[in-house]
Amino acid sequence: MAQTTSNHTQNVSGWAAHDSSGKITPYNFKRRENGINDVTIKILYCGICHTDIHHVKNDWGITMYPVVPGHEITGIITKVGGNVTNLKVGDRAGVGCLAASCLNCEYCKEGEENYCDQLQFTYNGIFWDGSITYGGYSEFIVADYRYVVRVPENLAMDAAAPLLCAGITVYSPLKDNNLLDSPGPGPGKRIGIVGLGGLGHIAVKFGKAFGHHVTVISTSPSKEKEARDRLGADDFILSTNADQMQLKRRTLDFILDTVSAQHSLGPTLDLLKVKGTLVIVGAPEKPMDLPSFPLIFGKRAVKGSIIGGIKETQDMMDVCGKYNITCDIEVVNISQINEALDRLGKNDVKYRFVIDVAGKPSGL
Ligand SMILES: [Zn+2]
Ligand SMILES: [Zn+2]
User: Fold this and answer.
1) Which ligand is nearest to the CA of 69?
2) Which among 102, 158, 208, 292 counts the fewest CB atoms within 10 Å?
3) How do the domains of the chain map onto residue ranges?
4) Which residues surround ligand 1, an ion (CB under 5 A)?
């Protein structure tokens, strides 16, 4: 579809999956001219998200091949359109999951474009001009300025890339539940993070930066040392250990569940105090087991959340600049994408792969 769109005249080198084997190979395609509302970004780095794996393998049955994945993009602006006043050539820019939305509905007007019914994603979406969107596994991207954020000067461009999806995914529920600001002297809230992966490790960093008591809840005993020593978590609960789970009943104000593997929510809910909130950002493929007793006997709430709006994403970037928060990453070059996707499928990464798209040394 994109190849026949008349305004798509710029040749781009990228990397795509062409079928459900999921193998990524070089792919040359076209992007649109830089329009009045667009900026062109030379891509430096692109994080590898679990969503990329689901798309390259067509796990959700929605993939339009060839698919160029990647929605954790950082780079340098090389062109700006006439309507763009907040970004300029040379700026350090980030593009996350959003490529377009209706701009008119109540959610778009409130800065919650991520809940717009007409939302189109950075890859495997349909842009306003009818073309299929292609993501960050490519040398440059043309993006509408309303979906682009600035990356603070003090953040490394490689380690900042996963903030555009993983970071905002965990930041938004913290904000929604009034957990953003350091409470000042004295302890903050007691918050639990289920799962210590790409999402969870950033949530721990946010929780500590905002002055909370942070408990990591995991099925993996090997994560305890990592959680406490490397990320500064205050406590650790091994969720497969019934004694530990029993001991910590009703101790947490808030829990963020980042796990995408199948699991029951009942035992996790029991860790919440009365009126506590559990927010789900992981996405198991089958319905989750949600027993009623822990809900009604604890007046607890279960909510979901997906990424964040663009203003919120910029706010998060600025907060990360203020507290010097980035992701723990392993940088790979283009020739290692397939290996990295394989390893990510086995959760064999601490904590995010980032592709060095431009072939520059890391830490730029
Ligand atoms: Zn993602
Ligand atoms: Zn809308």
Assistant:
1) 1
2) 292
3) 2-165+326-356, 168-304
4) 49, 51, 165
Which ligand sits nearest to residue 114's alpha carbon? 2
* d(CA 181, ligand 2 centre) in Å: 29
Q: Which residue, among 121, 64, 46, 47, has the nearest Cα to 344 in the 3D structure?
A: 47
Q: What is the pLDDT of residues 69-110, one digit of tens each?
A: 999 999 999 999 999 999 999 999 999 999 999 999 999 999
Q: What is the pLDDT of residues 240-288, one digit of tens each?
A: 999 999 999 999 999 999 998 889 999 999 999 999 999 999 988 888 9
- Backbone phi and psi for residue 193, each to the nearest 5 degrees, phi listed first: -120, 115
Is the pTM higher than 0.85? The answer reads: yes
Report how far ligand 1's centroid is from the alpha carbon of 293 (Å): 33
Q: Which two tokens stand for residue 135?
A: 């993501």
Fold of 168-304: Rossmann fold (3.40.50)
The rounded Å distance from CA 242 to ligand 1 centre is 32
- Of the candidate CATH numbers 3.90.180.10, 3.40.50.1820, 3.30.360.10, 2.160.10.10, the domain formed by 2-165+326-356 belongs to 3.90.180.10
Integer Cα distance of 287 and 289 in angstroms = 7
Residue 35 has φ and ψ, to the nearest 5°, of: -80, 180
The single-letter DSSP state of residue 67 is B
Nearest ligand atom owner, CA of 120:
2
pLDDT per residue as tens digits for the range 127-186: 999 999 999 999 999 999 999 999 999 999 999 999 999 999 999 999 999 999 766 666
